[in-house]
């Protein structure tokens, strides 16, 4: 199949490279010349484990190419995936669809023969209808069908998630288009992954409902963690205790500083807007959004409390800045609110992150960025683990203790056993334990 990816960001680039690895002929397109230049040069614009090797292998095999020229590239395509960004619109939280619609307009003038237009970007219900209308209006004679095919991959595990998904969702009602989609995903069905077909609107909503549900699950266990702290229970026991019930499932029950990232915060807000527009309020998701927003600063206050209630003139070492490990993504990372809360209270922050420092510098001022965990800890009055990078799981505790002015550890990801840290002479503050 000749597949063209419009937008070479996280989703577009990973999906494009994986499709090429399945043997399809793929061109990843982006307006950003510097991004395409970097890719042509073998440099990845994002940090994602295994991506450079995957891209390199498929470029060498001639199955994966890059271009800034949309019109030229999409001619003769079997399927054109729209995988451009849909950020929150400033002001009202609605998903900003201007990039999607602009792509649709450009595609309209360039397609030849029957072409499937695939909405891969996370877009509100009804966007497929609008994309169809835009293309029809711009090119009344074009032979095309629009389908929705939301992407569920996680950053940091993107390639594996794409290649071994729990399910693939395809929404549309044009039989020719659905057959093209079946062929595109055939390598996955051979792998026994489930490709489920539904209406376009159901597929669009599935993506938002899925992310909102996962955000709810995390937020639920986070509040249970707060209760655990008050009643003297361990949230990890409770999570295991409920997670083994198949109806609940054990994933996404790790208590922590609140969810962040490029999807959950944005998609929950967009779902609330859609719900408002259709007079079907989503009160549970509303509560989730509020609880999660408050939690991030509360985690900063947790550090302050651990340090005796007053951090003026004190220094805190922050380990981990990205919203989760194995990414350099800082979008809506809890570390931002934690650090700002500490700074507002008069603390100095020294921080280390294995991959996120460059991105962090763009959103956090007045942080002393250090070259390693021990450099950040040296001379600090407490250490807080905010992101669970593997590099922080086996710290030399004796060394940490000797470098800190006071042996205080706040472990927001529960990566250490309490007795181990206490035996090493620290006061240990975890989440929900
Ligand atoms: C998420 C969805 O998982 C994915 O299906 C969708 O396509 C995009 O959004 P991603 O944002 O990459 O993926 O990260 P994910 O691993 O889901 O984590 C999101 C946030 O939740 C992180 O901040 C993470 O630390 C937090 N989280 C996750 C928890 O606090 N506890 C958990 O148990 C799981």
From TrEMBL:
Domain called UDP-glucose/GDP-mannose dehydrogenase C-terminal: residue spans: 317-418
E.C. code: 1.1.1.22
Enzyme class, broadest EC rank: oxidoreductase
Catalytic activity from the UniProt record: UDP-alpha-D-glucose + 2 NAD(+) + H2O = UDP-alpha-D-glucuronate + 2 NADH + 3 H(+)
UniProt-listed InterPro entries: 6-PGluconate_DH-like_C_sf, NAD(P)-bd_dom_sf, UDP-Glc/GDP-Man, UDP-Glc/GDP-Man_DH_C, UDP-Glc/GDP-Man_DH_C_sf, UDP-Glc/GDP-Man_DH_dimer, UDP-Glc/GDP-Man_DH_N, UDPglc_DH_bac
GO biological process, one term: polysaccharide biosynthetic process
Membrane-crossing segments per the record: none
SUPFAM superfamilies registered for this protein in UniProt: 6-phosphogluconate dehydrogenase C-terminal domain-like, NAD(P)-binding Rossmann-fold domains, UDP-glucose/GDP-mannose dehydrogenase C-terminal domain
Ligand binding (NAD(+)): 30, 35, 86, 122, 155, 266, 331
GO molecular function, one term: UDP-glucose 6-dehydrogenase activity
Pathway: Nucleotide-sugar biosynthesis; UDP-alpha-D-glucuronate biosynthesis; UDP-alpha-D-glucuronate from UDP-alpha-D-glucose: step 1/1
Keyword set, alphabetical order: NAD, Oxidoreductase
Catalytic residues in the record: 263
Positions that bind substrate: 152-155, 207, 252-256, 260, 324
Matching PANTHER family: UDP-GLUCOSE 6-DEHYDROGENASE TUAD (PTHR43750)
Protein family according to the UniProt entry: Belongs to the UDP-glucose/GDP-mannose dehydrogenase family.
Name listed for the protein in its UniProt record: UDP-glucose 6-dehydrogenase
Species this protein is from: Sphingomonas yantingensis
